């Protein structure tokens, strides 16, 4: 039979019995003491085990779960079985866990706080750094000397740091002046001595190309955005937007100044974003509500304002304290354009206007010198387009080729952009015009010159160089009419009824808006100041480059645009020749007058304008020509004929005159024949002398 299991206590007692040999009360007391010692050892062991288990991670997070050490204590032969003690251990562990969790969350919050502070400080530091970089890098510095190398066509860097004229602090300043309708060949030493000096001695180009169409609003907005009209949205002085179902008309400022028309970023917005204060005097488009980026000063258009008032306005801005003084000043001058429309491109009225505008420019430059800021302020003088004289002999009658009632909208002028009614497609309209043109030519050969003086285009077939329609057009091509009648410079489209209303005397006497590369549409560019090396001659360029040129003088980075030179204009190559020179026509008359105010000049035929060699192209008004004077000149002027006629390459300084009498044509032919006879006689006399001396030549 299996022996009952004996406990450790009984074994030890048996050992004691073997030693003592009997069992009495003392032995019983000893057994009790042993029992007590054994219990103490178990308690000590349990306490040690519990302490060790406390150090291990509990697998529970609340009172609803039993920690691992509790389970182990229960597995220990039932010695530690006090439930209250176990709960006490679990509560203590959970409390420590919560304290530890709280410490971790406090640490996390501190880290998050410092992280956010670091981000904020980083943003502030980055903003300060960018401001420092903009103020230090790539900035324009004053020219080392007025006689900077003419071969350096780039705009010199000018520091944005504070400058001084000796008595007042200034920031670098740019004055941007537009002379509407001012052709570069208007420059002469007699009528425009101040601007002639700028052209010959300062920073200039023979001419600048406007954008197509060569009219005021598209080009003025191009000159402050660097965008072609089809990219900035102002595609004409008047046009229809089929998406808005509205017409833009510059005669209606309450409607045309809505920002929905004006896209891109103009100079005044770019300047304001870069902390450059701006003052604008009557520049087209500046009156629109530009919101937070609006200029500090904007003068509304006033067609009656005098040139003296414009001078006072510009110089008045320069006299303000530095905190309110504009650093970019834009000034619009419509004088020459208005006179050109009213009187044509030559005559005493134009001459007087040229003198007045030259005096205005001179007054501004004198004011700059008087204030001792010629090394601080840049002056840039441009025009938006040229001008061509019209004639009763150069008219295209619209109603000879199309029924006006079939056209819903007509855009532009002197170009005609045609939008047919819905019942008539653009292709049908184009076909009607071309077939009518062929029919007129077949019936009347005398109309051949008129028929060859204009072209008809579908929008998608327009020349790529115009950047107006087709693949080179911009995102606002929907504002461009689908069919266009485009006359050559000097020709005008009208109706027979309108011509009757004019009493058979077409007006206006001068027009623009033609092919932007036509010599008569060429624009002006002159500059002086610390950013423009004196004596530099610049290769002709397109006016989309002007935006970056102005930005560079102000040390600011412009918005994306269509310019490609990034403000770095190219020097005029040695031996440069005009890529589109005027063909010569025989003279039609010789007024024989040296009075420049009475000399007769026509855009369409040129006579002998003196014997001095010159590069000045000639502008003739109808059919008569006169002597432009005897001064040698290198100015540029244009010919307004269908053939773009000019003089014989020996013109002298242009002195504008006017004669609209077409009856002198026969006299002009007779005068030419008389000159030819005189020239033949001189040649014969010369050959006679040579032949008599050498006995080898006969009379011719």
TrEMBL record:
Instruction: Name the chain's protein.
Output: Alkaline-phosphatase-like protein
Q: Which InterPro entries match?
A: Alkaline_phosphatase_core_sf, Phosphodiest/P_Trfase
Task: Please note every region of biased composition (Basic and acidic residues).
Answer: 601-611
Q: Which residues cross the membrane?
A: 106-132
Keyword tags = Membrane, Transmembrane, Transmembrane helix
Task: Provide a Gene Ontology MF annotation, just one.
Answer: ribonucleoside triphosphate phosphatase activity
Q: What is the lineage of its organism?
A: Eukaryota, Fungi, Dikarya, Ascomycota, Saccharomycotina
Q: Does the keyword Nucleotide-binding apply?
A: no
- Region: Disordered, residue numbers: 1-24, 570-673
A Pfam family this protein belongs to? Phosphodiest
Instruction: Provide one Gene Ontology biological process annotation.
Output: nucleoside triphosphate metabolic process
Please list the residue ranges that the record marks as compositionally biased, kind Polar residues: 590-599
Bias kind Acidic residues: ranges: 11-21, 659-670
Keyword flag Transmembrane: yes
